[in-house]
């Protein structure tokens, strides 16, 4: 039975959730790099106060199940980063719901480019990014890819029509 999903804004009380959700998947697939630790341990300073944002997805009956950040990396450039969804919420479309909300927030911030850096081992995530409008981009890789040792995929968001997010509304 589908659960209701809701987007929650960053608060300092949710900072530990942001860290734990992301450390869990990064540790499971890779290893935490210094840049990961810096952002995860200091989300207010590294993301919020620097002009970015962090959103969470909450599932009815489960609480906070996912998080994603927009890290400002230039006057108008934003990296979609630290997106993770806890295992019990997988299959509920919580990641898609969260990603659609983060893209909408990035558009409201005037993000250009909106990009992400990942690894080909994250194939389900890459498929989701492609589904919602991200495209592989060699220029993004050249400009930003060295930020993480594990980065071998770079993608840029290509603006989509307003009806592209019909399926990503609260239940």
TrEMBL record:
Ranges for domain N-acetyltransferase come to 5-154
Which source organism? Lysobacter korlensis
| A Pfam cross-reference name | Acetyltransf_1
Traced from the root, the source organism's taxonomic lineage reads: Bacteria, Pseudomonadati, Pseudomonadota, Gammaproteobacteria, Lysobacterales
Q: What Enzyme Commission number does this protein have?
A: 2.3.-.-
UniProt keywords (A-Z) are:
Acyltransferase, Transferase
Enzyme class, one word? transferase
Acyltransferase listed as a keyword = yes
Q: What is this protein called?
A: GNAT family N-acetyltransferase
Keyword Protein transport recorded: no
Q: Which residues form a coiled coil?
A: none
Entry GO MF terms = acyltransferase activity
